[in-house]
Amino acid sequence: MTDDEMEKSYRSGLPGVLGVIDTAISKIEAVILAMGVLLMALNTVTNVVARFVFGNSIMFSGELNRILIIMITFAGIGYAARHGRHIRMSAIYDALPVGGRRVLMICIALFTALVMFFLLYYSVVYIIDLQSKGRVLPSLGLPVWIIYLWVPMGFLITGIQYLLTAVKNFTSHDVYLSTGVVDGYKDTETEV
Hints:
Blueprint: H1 3-8, H2 16-54, H3 61-82, H4 91-95, H5 98-133, H6 144-147, H7 150-170, E1 176-178, E2 181-182
Antiparallel strand pairs: 1-2
Helix pairs in contact: 2-3, 3-7, 5-7
């Protein structure tokens, strides 16, 4: 592995077992996201070719893309949190000294984790309600509740990631946007 490849691969900033778990989840998320996007592209292209060449669409193509969109979306929120890629409104945050930014980041991370766990709870309630109704996807024949299992998993992983970010900020002198991303701006200007 070259130096560039090692810099691009995720390394958790957490010590011990937490770091190993964080890195393992990161790799699983990356595979899920890559496979999901590739499968969606393949499914869509195949469906378009089938429609124009054979005159018929693939019956389950829309349902499969629906499943993949849900999977990508909710696997992606944990990935975005892990890499510090969520949208931030930082006018007040940027005006604070390092200590104030760290305290605010801890509060933000803990509040966001709380919201994710709240949404986790309600997504499980929703899935239980769907399961009780017995609905199935018309083409694939899968119970509808199965395709929504990605939702609570995404909220759980994202909530844990924000908790770990709060822990990282408690134990560090720097301010971290996630367990492996130090707060700061990269120079975006290029030399001419």
